[in-house]
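Just curious. Invent one:
>
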Amino acid sequence: MKKIINTAKAPAPIGPYNQAILSGNTLYTSGQIAINPETNDLVLSSIEAETKQVMLNLKAVLEAADMTFDHVVKSSIFISNMDDFATINKVYGSFFDESNAPARETVQVARLPKNVNVEISMIAVK
């Protein structure tokens, strides 16, 4: 059985999907981009600010499912420019205890929704 997870503390979906699906003890988040849920504006002032907003959006989705970053077992990071990898990695890493960090892949893509620079999705298990 699946449970739909949605919170006003993260951006509303911009298509036919939900912020996350909880199936049993496993949470599958949709990819988050740097939309500030309070203003509905993109946060693109710097790659650091953009990545931080993405992670804050993911944190809100995890919290809506009564989870934290400690529950994350897998992350997928999509970036438009591999030259931003180190900066994105630093911000992303600040949300995790390195000894308990999830598995992850980072992939450069040709284009992301709304022409953002980074999108991240996660799988978490309680």
